[in-house]
Amino acid sequence: MYAGAENLRKQIENILVHGVSPVVAVNAFPTDHPSEQEAIREVAESLGVRVAVCNHFSEGGKGAVELAEAVAEACEEPTAFRPLYPDSASLRQKIHAIATVIYGAGAVEYDLAASRQLDSFEKGGLGNLPVCIAKTHLSISSDPALVGAPAGWTLPVREVRASVGAGFIYVLCGDVRTMPGLSPVPAATRIDLDEHGEIVGLS
Questions:
Q1: What is the extent of the structural domain holding 43?
Q2: 46/33 Cα distance (integer angstroms)
Q3: Are 69 and 97 found together in one domain?
Q4: Rounded Cα distance, 52 and 136, in Å
Q5: Domain contains 180
């Protein structure tokens, strides 16, 4: 089994869950070995999905022709997109579906604060909103040390927030942090050079 193959298989399966035809794009670089690209192709083709090697980094547009053709073929196939959960599902049901079906978790564990937040959002009429999970990008799980396609682990939900204007609920898992909101006036507008050529406005 190739290193990383299980993760690729899981990502392909996640697309197939939604009823659409995935295309695996191999973002190729001149330093890659053909055997590496072939390994990815074997995994994708074993699941019956299209795969294309994309050499746009070194060849520009013409290096992406194989990928473009594969995507065009996939677009011609009849599809029946299926959402992972209905809008009518509870917020906990939506979180559970994402955790177990997409991420491979065996269970979801809520901190007391997160549980109370979910109850509040449900009572406030926000239960019909879709859910977004904020977790580490280093693993399909919430633990960056778990590689491949781990299964049976527990998703730890520590906080739940509502982006009512944008129309979704987002769940913070483990140690993940969110970016602070940006100022309406970028800090770069204060940066300049004074008459002596010194930078000002960085503080």
A1: 5-76
A2: 21
A3: no
A4: 28
A5: no
What pTM does this model have? 0.82
Q: How confident is the model at residue 26 (pLDDT cuts 50, 70, 90)?
A: very high
Domain match, 98 and 71 both: no
CATH number of the domain that 108 lies in? 3.10.410.10
% of the chain at pLDDT higher than 70: 99
162-172 pLDDT per residue, tens: 999 999 999 99
- Two tokens, residue 179: 């970016």
- Shared domain for 98 and 160, answered yes or no, is yes
Q: What is the pLDDT of residues 117-145, one digit of tens each?
A: 999 999 999 999 999 999 999 999 999 99
End-of-domain residue from the set 50, 76, 102: 76
Number of domains the chain contains: 2
